[in-house]
Amino acid sequence: MAGESPERSEQQRSSGETSPDEVAVPEERVAVAAPDPRMAFSGARTPSGGDSGAPEDPENPEDPEGPEDPEDPEDRIAAAAPAEEPSEEKVPEREPADEPADATPTAEAPIADEPVADEPSADEPVADEPTDAAPEGPAEEPAPQDRDEPEDRDEPEAGTRESDEPEAEDSGDRTTVLRTDVARARADKPPAKPDESKADDAKPDADNSKPGTDSDKSAAGPAKPAGDEPEAVRTQALRSEFVPLRSSDDPPPAPTARPTPPPPGPPVPEADATRQQPLPPVPGQRAIDLLAQLTNKPAPPETPLRTVVRRVKIWTPLVLLLVLVFVSVQLLRPLPAPALELTASPTHVFDGGKPTIAWPDSGQAALGVEGLGSFGTSGEQKPVPIASVAKTMTAYLLLRDHPMKEGEDGKKIPVDRKAEDDAGLSAQGESTVDVKEGETLTQREALNAIMIASANNVARLVARWDSGSEEKFVEKMNATADELGMRNTTYTDPSGLLKETVSTAEDQVKLGRAAMKLPAFRESVRLPSYVDRNGKKQDNWNRLVPLFGTIGIKTGTTTAAGGNLLFAAEKEIGGTKQLIIGAVLSQHQPPIIDSVLAAAKELILSAQEALESETVIKKGTVVGVVDDGLGGRTDVVVTKDVKAVGWSGLKVRIALSEGSDGVPGEAPKGTEVGTLTVGAGQGQVKVPVALDGELVEPGSGARLARVG
Predict the structure, then answer these.
(1) What's the pLDDT tens digit per position in 188-243?
(2) What are the structural domain ranges in the chain?
(3) Contacts (Cβ under 8 Å, ≥6 apart) of 466
(4) Which residues 6+ apart lie within 8 Å of 91 measured at CB?
(5) Is 619 annotated as contributing to ligand binding?
(6) Is 388 an active-site residue?
(7) Tell me, what DSSP letter sits at residue 490?
(8) Which of helix, strand or coil describes residue 294?
(9) Catalytic: which of 5, 454, 495, 524?
(10) Given 391, 476, 510, 601, the catalytic residue
(11) Active-site choice (9, 218, 240, 388)
């Protein structure tokens, strides 16, 4: 087109505009700068609307040599177009120092010389900007304006300062398409002369915008005074580019909304940007299909063999890992402690029938061997008065609650006035020992006075010293009887003088077994006599001591109770010392003390005669095994003959126990690892057992195979 640069002609041809022969623009017409096409979508108005346009720069007229029209075309357009309401949308302001001065170049739209009445109304849709007018994407920020401009340059409006500059710059980022009557413009004016300054305007430079240069005077019409037009409008006119106009005869195209551009991000390589990305996984989608999307390689067809191979590849590493963990845990687990187990019979029964026992003709009796069993009882086991036999419980509590070792004298017991007074009751037939108030008795002296001299006054003194009163001590006596299983026993006083203190022979044997376990008690009751603190010899009322192996325990005689005796005797047999304990009650044949001693003697002799020893297990017999806890078993044998003591028809128990150091994990053959025990109590038989083979720790196979 005449009067335009070659670049502008190229823009017309690429955008499909009419040729230069068809459109003629008068040279004297003012070329009004078209705003940025993007303003059409931001709600800003064209210069005809009066809000914000692309004002021309009076300092940079595009055609300095052309004639100036005394009337501004922009004013004519504003006068003819209906007034529009100013947009209430505020354009964000930018800091002037940070905004570039040059906005993205836009096309320049020449205004045809035609009546204003032919211009389409503001309600008519505006044609979209051609694609070539401005590239898509974020708008290029305008370069900062030259700050070397003269300070005395005319201001756009009174009272308007640099604060108006961001609005002008923002308006440069918008687009408005101006329409004119192309046919009338063609008839009025000849083709315009090429404007050599347009080539320079296509690439605006901050250095070329200085006032006074030829490029600054390329306006298409008469320049308005600087005081009538804002500086940003004039600058926008300089940066405008050619925008093709639509013919008024063509129907307006439907407005299309441009999609909001995404926020700028890091540059994406072209190969990655155009590559098809896989969709997110769909629920229920197979992993192999997802892998095919990621690798852009279709999944191979599914076959049974391929399925098996894939499963083997997936599960084999996991199985191997589990096996490795299992093996490590099994091998590092601590080994269970070896234990001895009895494989022989746990009991042994002696051959023959029941032995013959010389039971008394009257009263009641009971007989047994500690640790082996009972020979049985005679008479009716009903509660009867037991007289001084009750002192056995008093002595037992004295030593149980105030322990005393064998050979010691024990604690000091002060003598009170009552003990001294009770000593005078000997004149009434009571057994007593002379004591004086203020003196002290040792536990040993008190024990001998109770169990050998059978002193009632000392028994009551011990009760008051131990519990504070005789009544509380009696309560303790009855409580202890219940603990020992003496169900038919009742105590009413510490000495047994009262006839309400009753028991049975069977219950008294239970008490005798418990008392004979105390060393100090055994040491005292086996004495035939002792000398008290007054130098007087006190004989044991049980004259069987020390005859026939008798070692105690206590006699008791009263008119109401008759003769009573709780006794103990020993017999050595089969390398053991067996303890025989029995009781005879309610012997009323006078002299009652002699009657009861005679009856007890027969019982002791019967028991000693019934006891026998026999070999239960021979040397070298396997009686048990050492179990390592993982299936390994090593036999153990007795190191000598095992002889049990008992009587015909008696059943004895056999047990296997570990040594004091336990069972070793490894040991050679012949190592003693425990003891075989026959019977219980004082007369039990113990024989060592030893390994019948080498004892070794469990191997790796046994460790891996254990489950528990």
Answers:
(1) 555 444 444 444 443 434 344 444 444 344 333 444 444 444 555 454 545 555 55
(2) 339-349+615-705
(3) 397, 398, 401, 402, 473, 476
(4) 42, 44, 52, 166, 167, 170, 171
(5) no
(6) yes
(7) B
(8) helix
(9) 454
(10) 391
(11) 388
